[in-house]
Amino acid sequence: MSNSFNTATTVSSNGKNYQIHSLVELSKKHNINRLPYSLKILLENLLRHENGVDVTKEDIDALCHWDAKAQPSTEIAFTPSRVVLQDFTGVPAVVDLAAMRDAMKSLGGDVQKINPLSPAELVIDHSVQVDKYGNQSAQSANEDIEYQRNMERYAFLKWGQKAFDTFKVVPPGNGIVHQVNLEKLARVTFGVEKDGVLQAYPDTVVGTDSHTTMINGIGVLGWGVGGIEAEAAMLGQAISMLIPQVVGFKLTGKLPEGTTATDLVLTIVEMLRKHGVVGKFVEFYGDGLQNLPLADRATIANMAPEYGATCGIFPVDAEAVKYLKLSGRSDEEVELVEAYAKAQGMWHTADSVDAEYSSTLELDMSTVVPSISGPKRPQDRIALSESKAKFQTLFADMEKGREKKSVAVTTEHGRFDLKDGDITVAAITSCTNTSNPAVMIGAGLLAKNAAEKGLKVKPWVKTSLAPGSRVVTQYLESAGVLDDLEKLNFFVVGYGCTTCIGNSGPLDPAISKAIQDNGLVATSVLSGNRNFEGRIHADIKMNFLASPPLVVAYALAGTVDFDLYNDSLGNDKDGNPVYLKDIWPSTHDVAQAISENINADMFNKGYAGVFDGDENWKAVKTSESEIFEWQDDSTYIKNPPYFDGMTLQAGSIEDITGARCLAKLGHSVTTDHISPAGSIAVDSPAGKYLNEKGVERKDFNSYGSRRGNHEVMMRGTFANIRLRNQLAPGTEGGWTRHQPTDKEMSIYDASRIYAEEGTPLVVVAGKEYGTGSSRDWAAKGTNLLGVKAVIVESFERIHRSNLVGMGVLPLQFKDGESADSLGLTGHETYSITGLENGASKVAQVTAKTNDGKKTHFEVIVRIDTPKEVEYMQHGGILQYVLRQLAQS
Q: Which of 2, 30, 202, 524 has the maximal Cβ count within 10 Å?
């Protein structure tokens, strides 16, 4: 490695000397003290990886001279220290690695070159579903069902753990990846020996889940990427990126009594969405940081995808070190974190000088009010005081002014009337909040107060408690509130994402029937981070995000058509009305319970043998071959076609002629819309495929669990039940009209006909295309359907990158133009020219109607960096990496 700036020096910690690349030394030559904390981490990364090829002296100079106000234009190569994965995105990543080994063998290369070069840790958290709930045996029953459904996938992951170096798996039942990352996996500062030299450098990470940003709360720079980009990073490829703009978010004051970190983050999401931070870093600073516990910072950082930023980072300070000690990190690890941050001038104190930012916002936290958000976007915050009126307005708009309905329903819990607005799912779920002791213990204390007054959850509410780690259960038990949550039917159902990602499980059949037969507007309230249409449950039309204490309160109310300030939650044992203010725990009581009931021993116990697994995991059998033995009859794991017929020579980016539109969509099309994670309908193309393969309906599992099978996933692309394709008006779900016959059919069936005809395809949509999860299957499925280009008004960051990674051309309408303004209906044929093998930033599109009328317009080619041009020329990032390794 080069050392053009002579920054190599040492730092002493624990009696050892670690080599570092000193930013203090660099600051003697360049004015870098003004740089935001996040850019200092990037700068160190460049200094350490300077080799004159991937990272040059000019790259480092460019970052040293960063212009905060300039539009990003300088490409750099960022090399993360490690990769984290979850099983929904991790299984297809390991499938791709296994397929790459097959392809490497076919190309005559060394299969051992397909091996992670940096630590890669996968946490199995996305597969447990809430099949059973409301009793003590729910957790064990759900885990048993999880293993039955996913044994083949888990055997495959266990094979991967044995076959690939530096690849570890955290087995099921341990927690959610981002919480496990925060509580256990994160190093904050690496201290490792490389090439015989003891080195220290910042922990940086990319993850196959958009909420990887949660780790920003402890000062670790990281963000979500698609599985394909993560695979490339695992194989030693630097991540190509533009030096970003950095938005400074100043926090002052402290949260008032009666509010939570959830209320704060929903306020921040709303503010940053309005400000516009897509593709930018957000950095939090200000004297309010001293009033923010680490867990609150992690909650804010977690929702960076919801406010649209690449990351939302906090600096390393005394609070971060305090958390590292609390969570059981060794004295040696903690001392190195502090020594390194101070040696690099990155240690934050109350009198630290503010950095230079591209733009700034400010929030006085004392102005935050209790809030929820919904019914289908996290940024749509609603003050709790206005929630009842807001629901009534939303209902009137959605149902076009019809009167509210009431339907008699009988279940094992008795007979009751189910009404519009009734809450059928109330879930304490998600890493966003279950990692935060204040809101979890707050929920427990609220439950305790409610139970003491004799309040009960309404019988139509499906309740669940899914902690993000086993530590949470320990401290709830220690604080004496787990029993109280159980008295209100909030029993632990498992340790995983559950309801937050759509694994809410079935509703009572009688309730589902009443909703479906009568068109009731059922609702959910969850402590999650996303509430997109169709995500939580197919029968639920409105989803609201709320803090865990409010989830419990709403479960008591039983409806969102309710004023929690003025409506009674029921009567106490003496017949007196009980209001939310009567059971809401004080900030003092919550803080006292935290200080008395959470300690490092809990974390050490909770994570002892975390990679070993329980008896279920130990019983999973798998092969030990370096090449995976694909099974032709498998419906979970199949060898994907990405490398079929591949040679060592790259291709080119060619113009597209005679393309048809597969789908014309509106605004805010999420990756959930494109590639759903939830249940597979029996009459869907994916359901029909599984049925033909002899899979019984009860064993369909979810789309997310079948991401290792491209046949299922391509059939599930654009199959979300709430997708509205304007080519097939009056329908919802994966429908389109084949052109020019205008025959209505499933999107998958139409794609097969187009493939037989040799017709390339495009997708046309509006703003914020690809928001949500870092779901690489949204790009993979698009590719496999034969889509060559996606033309939209704007892209969300990760999905645009994923499209490039799969060789699909991302094109953007020029400002002020859209499909509607240009009069495009989707019935045209499309020709896209002037791509010049990726050299041109603008392309010409001609849309020709069936009667010969032509519309000409220009689009911006969103291949953003020279490295991305190379990926596109190779047909995708994996093909690029494979050719590089095969020829090395």
A: 524
Residue 307 and residue 273 in contact, taking contact as beta carbons nearer than 8 Å: yes
Q: Given this model, what pLDDT does residue 88 score?
A: 86
pLDDT of residue 154: 96
The single-letter DSSP state of residue 183 is: I
> What is the pLDDT, as a whole number, of residue 3?
86
Quick one: residue 414, left, alpha or beta (phi over 0 = left, psi -120 to 50 = alpha)? left
Which ranges of the chain have pLDDT less than 50? none
**In the chain, where the domains are located:** 82-367, 374-598, 656-677+725-886
CATH annotation of 82-367: 3.30.499.10
225-243 per-residue burial string, b: 16 or more CB within 10 A, e: under 16: bbbbbbbbbbbebbbbbeb
End-to-end CA separation in angstroms for the chain: 18
Judge contact between 394 and 375, C-beta under 8 A.
yes
DSSP state string for 390-425: HHHHHHHHHTTTPPP-EEEEEETTEEEEEETTBEEE
- 526-562: buried (b, 16+ CB within 10 Å) or exposed (e) per residue? bbbbbbbbbbbbbbbbbbbbbbbbbbbbbbbbbbbbb
Residue type for 721, please? I
Nearest to 855 by CA among 795, 800, 813, 810: 813
Q: What is the pLDDT of residues 811-867, one digit of tens each?
A: 999 999 999 999 999 999 999 999 999 999 999 999 999 999 999 999 999 999 888
Element (H, E) at 603: helix 600-606
Superfamily of domain 374-598: Aconitase, domain 3 (3.30.499.10)
